[in-house]
Amino acid sequence: MNTISKLQIAYLRSRFMKPLEQLFPLLTEPKKVVITTHQKPDADAMGSSLALRLLLLDLGHSVTVISPTNWAGWVDWMPGVKEVLDYEMNRQKANAILDEAEWLFCLDFNIFHRTKTMTEKLKELTCTKILIDHHQEPDVASFDYGKSDVSKSSTCEMIYDFITESGYGDKINEEISECLYAGIVGDTGSFRFSSAHQGVHKLVADLKSKGLNHGPVHDRLFDNFLENRLRFVGHVLLHRMEVFYEYNTVLIAIPKSDLIKYQIKTGDTEGLVNFPQSIQGIKLVALVIDRDEERKWSFRSKGDFDCNTFARKYFEGGGHYNAAGGRSSDTLEMTVKRFMEALKENEHILQ
Ligand code: 5GP
Ligand code: MN
Question: What pTM was estimated for this model as a whole?
Answer without folding.
Answer: 0.94
